[in-house]
Amino acid sequence: MTTPPTKYLYSSMSCNFYVYLYLNPLKNNIPFYVGKGTNKRALDHLRRGDTTNLYKTNTISLLRETGHEPIIVMAWEGENENSAYYVEKFLIALFGTKYDGTGILTNMTKGGEGASIGHIVTKESRQKNREWHTGKHLSLETKKKISEANTGRPIKENIKLQLSKTRIGAKNPFFGKHHAEEVRTKMSESQKGNKNPFFGKKHSEATKEKIRKSWIIRRQHSTSTVALVDAS
Fold first, then answer.
1. How far apart are CA 142 and CA 57, in angstroms?
2. Considering 49, 58, 59, 117, which has the largest number of Cβ atoms within 10 A of its Cβ?
3. pTM for the full model?
């Protein structure tokens, strides 16, 4: 028997701020996540493709794979944001986190104002986060859901430019390296004839125009980068 669809066990969302808990129906409704929110923030964790906290996402995915949904309950609600942060921190400290070995929650921070938008993550926190996820793998079902959630989602031009800059010159992990002749031959053979995924297909005129414009932009960007290097 499965649990009913995700539900809120509180009366309203009319207050400016609230603190909520995610409960695991497969483990006697024990909490596995605590959060502070406003409006419908508590529902954000249910979106397909949420990768902000993979351990929490995996827990939700495991529930769904068995026909269950997490139960969301409100622990506190009010008009004072500082009070909301206090309650969030208190509950996380009360239940502890798996992240640091103190308890049962999947939270990656201690909560409070330091975990809000605009917070600068320290190198130490990044290292801990990296170590926490090392060796952990997403299930095929979760990977499929993440892929479906991102399919067709356009990438903003400023994001594309930022990504491009991280791969230019010495920043590219393959900078100064070359494929061995044997590897190049294998790569070539794997793309010949009907092995090529584009075999027998043709680009539409609209696609050709997009490729042309993209090539022009890349050339201009490449020329600008060379000029900057020469000037330095």
1. 8
2. 59
3. 0.49
pLDDT at 50 over 70: no
Measured in residues, the chain has a length of 232
Angle made by CA atoms 92, 97, 100, in degrees to the nearest 5: 125
Instruction: Answer whether residue 73 is part of any domain.
Output: yes
**Residue 5, in any domain of the structure:** no
Q: Does the structure show a pLDDT above 60 at 79?
A: yes
Long-range contacts of 127-135 (CB under 8 A, 24+ apart): 128/99, 132/55, 132/99, 132/108, 133/54, 133/55
Residues in Cβ contact with 17 at an 8 Å cutoff, skipping those fewer than 6 apart: 36, 37, 38, 77, 78, 79, 80, 81, 83, 84
Q: Are residues 124 and 158 in the same domain?
A: no
- Over 90: is that where the pLDDT of 77 sits? no
- In terms of average pLDDT, the best of 55-64, 128-137, 140-149 is 55-64
- The gap from C-alpha 154 to its chain's centroid, in whole angstroms, comes to 16
Whether residues 136 and 222 share a domain: the answer is no
User: To the nearest whole number, what is the mean pLDDT of the chain?
Assistant: 75
Range of the domain at 86: 17-143
Q: Are residues 226 and 163 in the same domain?
A: yes
pLDDT value of position 222: 56
